[in-house]
Amino acid sequence: MVEYVGLDVSKEETAYCVMDRDGKVLARGKAASDPQALFEALKEPCPCPERIVMETGTLSHWLVRELRARGMPVELIDARQAHAVMKLQHNKTDAGDAELLAEIARTGFCRPVAVKSEDAQGDRILLKARAHLVGQRRDMENTIRGLLASLGHRFREGRRQVCRPGGGDPGGSSGSRGGHRASAPRPRRPGGFPRAAGQGSHGVREG
Fold first, then answer.
1. How confident is the model at residue 6 (pLDDT cuts 50, 70, 90)?
2. Is domain 3-107 annotated with CATH 3.30.420.40?
């Protein structure tokens, strides 16, 4: 006897359904979404699986690689094709989804898709993380530009130097382009805080 298995994977648990060649359900249940836990759960009710099917998702590529390494004939199908069948259910449940996936495994209704290697997944993670960080930096720069613009400060196009109110150029040594000369830095107290205008070295206003 050969068996066909459908696996409906979620973050914590995976529902499974085992079906024979004639479409009769032989076993159903749930196991942790872990390769070894699934292998142990299917070992007894499914000693000779012909095809095991799961749909694409967050954990699917990892699970397929690990289950194949344990000798299980697992195939991955496009989640969009699987949903086209699953939406026909009146009451959508994990057990019902697993049964429909087992039916897909039995009939071969959906074509399998390629399973990503661990190296390919690692490269994709790095690219997505880089794109996310670049987007965060761009959003932060735009936020800073908008906040400074409300005070009259503007960034030159294509540069990260700020133009002072009145057209001053921070890049010029004399500040003559905008008619403003850069002021000398205010003296600082030993604690690192700028001295208030009109105060002496002991914080007493000079008369």
1. very high
2. yes
Closest CA to 75 of 42, 30, 43, 115: 115
Using the Cα atoms of residue 95, residue 29, residue 16 and residue 48 in order, give the sign of their dihedral: negative
Q: What type of residue sits at position 94?
A: D
Question: Strand 25-32 relative to strand 154-155: parallel, antiparallel, unpaired?
Answer: unpaired
Mean pLDDT score, 113-135: 92
pTM, 2 dp: 0.64
32 in Cβ contact with 11 (< 8 Å): no
Query: What is residue 83's three-state secondary structure?
Result: helix
Residues 30-36: contacts with CB under 8 Å, at least 24 apart: 30/94, 33/9, 33/59, 33/63, 35/62, 35/63, 35/66, 35/67, 35/69, 35/70
Bigger pLDDT: 79 vs 188 = 79
